[in-house]
Write a structure and sequence with these properties.
about 300 residues, alpha/beta, Helix Hairpins, Pyruvate Kinase, Chain: A, domain 1, 2 domains, two-stranded parallel sheet, 6 strands, about 60% helix, about 10% strand
């Protein structure tokens, strides 16, 4: 049986750990709120950009782009695929990282050839240790998402895509589902775009669809630049969703750790009080026995 000193040291250790997990919970909560706020501020721009791209195709029926496919079949397996994988830099976030990794492995199984572009040290370490084919010179830490980070990733992916190194680009990330959910690991096709990808939310009026616009220098150039800008927003959204889900999963993990620590502290304190009460009872018994012995000797 542990002594009262050992239990007291254990109580202190658990209390110190609980302070750390509580601080991590508060930090993750602050980071998540800031990321969601930044995403909401940029969302209107990319929503309008999406609508304008749809308008270009509605006005110019014969418009073509290497980033755009009118007949993309998601059920077709095989091909040369590039997969952008978004994980965290570290663990302590429940099943967040493992869910994304499982989703990525399922996409690898559907490819004849593949190459991984990994964001986050956790995923980089996992796929390197498992001998997966990944782009070694593509190294991005999962810091606070920013448009600059999304722009750098977009340029690197498009550089390979424009050279014809792969047929499709997918992104595996975690979709943010609210504060009570750790998020859902999912995948989206980045390139080539499908015709339905740019259908705006809500109803498009006939006037908007039939309006005549002039594009400088030409509609193809405007379309290509618009699609590249939209792709930056798409990747930025995936980064923010993953980052928010990571912080939320860490909050849930730290909250669970806090609850476990509280239960453990209650159990330790109860055990400590029992031992302390037993020690006091034993001391009282010894004092009473000694007093009786002294009275007998005097008689």
């Amino acid at each position: 049986m542990a002594s009262t000193k050992e239990i007291k040291n254990r109580i202190k250790s658990v209390s110190d750990t609980q302070k750390i997990t509580n601080a991590m919970y508060l930090i993750s909560s602050t980071k998540m709120r800031k990321a969601r706020r930044d995403a909401e501020q940029t969302k209107p721009y990319f929503t309008l950009l999406r609508r304008e791209i749809h308008r270009m195709f509605a006005v110019s029926k014969d418009l073509k782009s290497r980033y755009y496919d009118y007949a993309v079949d998601e059920n077709v397996k095989g091909g040369r695929n590039a997969i952008l994988v978004i994980t965290a830099d570290k663990g302590l976030a429940g099943v967040y990282n493992q869910s994304v990794i499982r989703e990525t492995l399922s996409q690898i199984d559907k490819s004849d050839e593949y190459i991984l572009f990994i964001v986050g040290d956790y995923g980089w370490r996992f796929f390197r240790s498992h001998g997966s084919n990944y782009a070694a010179d593509f190294q991005h830490s999962m810091n606070v998402p920013s448009l600059a980070m999304a722009r750098d990733i977009t340029e690197e992916l498009l550089e390979h895509f424009d050279r014809g190194e792969f047929d499709r680009i997918y992104v595996c990330y975690t979709e943010y589902e609210g504060s009570m959910s750790p998020g859902i690991a999912t995948h989206d096709r980045l390139l080539p775009f499908d015709i339905d990808d740019f259908v705006p939310e809500g109803k498009e009026t006939a006037r908007d669809a039939s309006a005549v616009f002039e594009y400088e220098p030409d509609v193809e150039t405007v379309l290509e630049r618009s699609i590249r800008a939209y792709l930056v927003g798409y990747i930025y959204s995936a980064l923010v969703n993953s980052y928010s889900s990571e912080q939320n999963a860490r909050m849930m993990a730290m909250e669970s750790a806090n609850e476990n620590a509280s239960e453990l502290l209650a159990s330790l304190e109860l055990e400590y009080n029992h031992l302390r009460q037993n020690a006091i009872t034993q001391e009282i018994t010894e004092i009473s026995s000694g007093a009786r012995s002294l009275r007998r000797k005097k008689k």
